[in-house]
Amino acid sequence: MTTLSPTKARANLTHWLKKASAGEDIGILCGDKVIALRPVQVFSEDSDYAKREYGVTEAELKAFVKRASAELKHERRAGRLTRCKGDIRAAIRD
Fold first, then answer.
1. Closest CA to 37 of 76, 10, 69
2. Which residues pair with 37 in a beta bridge?
3. How do residues 23-71 score in pLDDT, each as one tens digit?
4. What distances in angstroms separate CA 21 from CA 10, 38, 40, 55, one per listed residue?
5. What is this structure's pTM?
6. Contact at 8 Å (CB) between 58 and 51?
7. Helix or strand or coil: residue 25?
8. How far apart, in Å, are the Cα atoms of 40 and each of 12, 20, 23, 36, 43?
9. What residue segments make up the domains of the chain, in order of their start?
10. Contact present, 16 and 6 (Cβ < 8 Å)
11. Which of 31, 35, 40, 62 qualifies as a FRET site for 76, CA 20 to 30 Å off?
């Protein structure tokens, strides 16, 4: 692993980011710890999280959203579910 001081890393950050992106182990010292630079996958949609975390298909997720929306609508109409229009922390304490 290539280990750098923050000053050295900052001086040529793009270079070190490209190296880390290519798979090289790069670390930056932070006190007595080494912080590793590693590429990560970024997911832009909430559905990506559900698929990744719970292993659901797109069809299963759509069915869940439809069912949950219908249940919420039913509960609101029945008066068992209302929107909080005040201080939620105060409502929880009471």
1. 10
2. 26
3. 999 999 999 999 999 998 766 665 677 777 888 888 998 899 999 999 9
4. 16, 7, 9, 27
5. 0.47
6. yes
7. coil
8. 21, 11, 12, 12, 10
9. 2-37, 42-94
10. no
11. 62
